[in-house]
Amino acid sequence: MLQAPVLIVVCADLMRAAYYGSRGMNLYAIQDTAAATENMLLAFHAMGFATCWVGAFNERLLREILQLPKDIRPVAVVTVGKGDEVPEPRELRPLSEIVHYEKFREVQSA
Ligand SMILES: Cc1cc2nc3c(=O)[nH]c(=O)nc-3n(C[C@H](O)[C@H](O)[C@H](O)COP(=O)(O)O)c2cc1C
Fold first, then answer.
1. CA-based angle 37:50:10, to the nearest 5?
2. How far is ligand 1, taken at its centre, from the CA of residue 67, in Å?
3. pLDDT (0 to 100) of residue 107
């Protein structure tokens, strides 16, 4: 993160979601940021940049640095830069393990 030339802090605007009550503030607001973050990653990738979605940060410290009001919650940091490696695609979990038809059933994962 320290080497990335750009860090984007993605924040949930809790009051904008307040219209939908606690579900809006606790769930929709976070979903909004997840969708926005993923779109950003795809757009940066398409432009040839490398990114990382970072959730492991000190929220209290970040709030302090950016002077965020209490209803603006930092949810993710996106690092953006030029990649120094092109990683091999990693093996994905098989669809049969993560797609459930009609009802949820427990699957033994490796
Ligand atoms: C919600 C979320 C939080 C993440 N937090 C971190 C993080 O703190 N540090 C990190 O190196 N990568 C973080 N990542 C990136 C993942 O480690 C991983 O590189 C990325 O999701 C790509 O996964 P894939 O290999 O399944 O495509 C995070 C990803 C997500 C979705």
1. 25
2. 26
3. 75
- Whether 90 is in the pocket of ligand 1, judged by its Cβ within 6 Å, is yes
pTM score of the predicted model: 0.91
CA of 53 to the centre of ligand 1 (A): 5
Please state, in angstroms and rounded to a whole number, the distance separating the CA atoms of residues 31 and 44.
20
Nearest CA to ligand 1 atom 31: 53
**Residue ID of nearest Cα to ligand 1 atom 12:** 54
Closest CA to 72 of 14, 2, 26: 14
Domain range for 82 is: 6-98
54 lines ligand 1 (CB under 6 A): yes
Domain count within the chain: 1
pLDDT per residue as tens digits for the range 74-109: 999 999 999 999 989 999 999 999 999 999 988 766
> Is residue 92 domain-resident?
yes
